[in-house]
Amino acid sequence: MPWYSLYWLMPSTLRAFHYDNQWALLLIPLTISLFLFRNVLGQRYRQQLRVSGLGLTGVRPGGWARFVSLLRLLVPLSLWLSMAFLLVALARPQTVRQLREEQSVGIDIMLALDVSSSMLETDLKPNRLAAARLVAQQFVAGRQHDRIGLVVFAGEAYSLCPLTTDYALLRQYLRELSPNLVRTTGTAIGDALARGINRLRDSPARSRVLVLLSDGDNTAGNLDPLTVARLATPFNVKIYTIAVGRRSARTEDGSLASQFDEGILKSIAEMGQGYFFRVTDVGQLRQVFARIDRLERAPTYVETHEDVQDQYRPYLRWGVVLLVFTLLLKNTPLGNVLED
């Protein structure tokens, strides 16, 4: 933008600037008062030659005389504008553009979900697996910068999705969860832990988390869950375990019988330096995932970069040009005419 462009004189342009020396702007109204004070003194102490009216009373100056009278304001006006522009330049108008960069050290999370046939029980509506699937999708949707993977297990355990930040793909896998994914019956908790820890052990993330959700005892697989859980600490993996379903079920004779011993899931969480949760409805399951979401948040670092550009040069040039114009008016015959 050239310095002589009217863009620099627009009020919107002047308002958009950041002024490094704002005190200089306060001097602009002061210059107006100085000119007014000078005018008052000039009228009071100016020597005047009185001439008799000779019958000219009531005669008003013509259009040309009024025009010449207004031209007398040109010199002080030019001087004042010059001073105003120089003060604006002294205030250092700047354009400041802020660039924000958010950096986060992501967390690697493996979800190990039980897809055995018992997960179709309806004590969680519509059933345990559907409730877990829905809440897990919401958990994934709330993460940022974190890699998340998925392990499914029943009588065997499979790594369904590796650690990824492709949350859309991960939610697609979660929507497709069903007992048909693993034909082998049983609950291989030890194998599921081993699959998850194996995915996390070589992770570059400083925080590694394994969330295991199941509704039964370890009844299948070749690995002891407690033995596998002991391996989590050397690999810096934290384990959260979630037991879904009611503590007991009513048998045919009307008595209450325990569905499974949750002690093994508690022990796994304790060895994995995490927490154990028991949930009996969808609301509790949401609260558990929300708590894990709060506990496992990576710090976010915000860096703000400022691009500062000084814009005083156009106003400095305007001020110098008007000052030279004022001096030319004062030191030419035209200046004398305007004064008289």
Describe the protein's topology.
Layout (H helix, E strand, L loop, with lengths): L10 H6 L1 E2 L3 H23 L17 H9 L2 H17 L2 E12 L3 E7 L13 H14 L5 E7 L3 E8 L2 H9 L13 H12 L7 E7 L10 H6 L6 E8 L3 E3 L5 E3 L4 H9 L4 E4 L2 H14 L4 E11 L2 H18 L2 H7 L1
Parallel strand pairs: 3-4, 3-6, 6-7, 7-10
Antiparallel strand pairs: 1-2, 2-11, 4-5, 8-9
Keywords: Cell membrane, Membrane, Transmembrane, Transmembrane helix
Protein name: VWFA domain-containing protein
Pfam families: VWA
Relevant terms:
340 residues; Rossmann fold; six-stranded mixed β-sheet; 12 helices; cell membrane; UPF0353/GerABKA_families
What does this structure look like?
The structure is a single chain. The protein is an alpha/beta fold and 340 residues long. The protein contains 12 helices and 11 strands. The strands form 3 sheets. A 6-stranded mixed sheet has the order 5-4-3-6-7-10, with helices on both faces. Strands 1-2-11 form a 3-stranded antiparallel sheet. Strands 8-9 form a two-stranded antiparallel sheet. α8 links the parallel β6 and β7. It is rod-shaped, with a radius of gyration of 41 Å. About 4% of the residues have low confidence. This is VWFA domain-containing protein. Keywords: Cell membrane, Membrane, Transmembrane, Transmembrane helix.
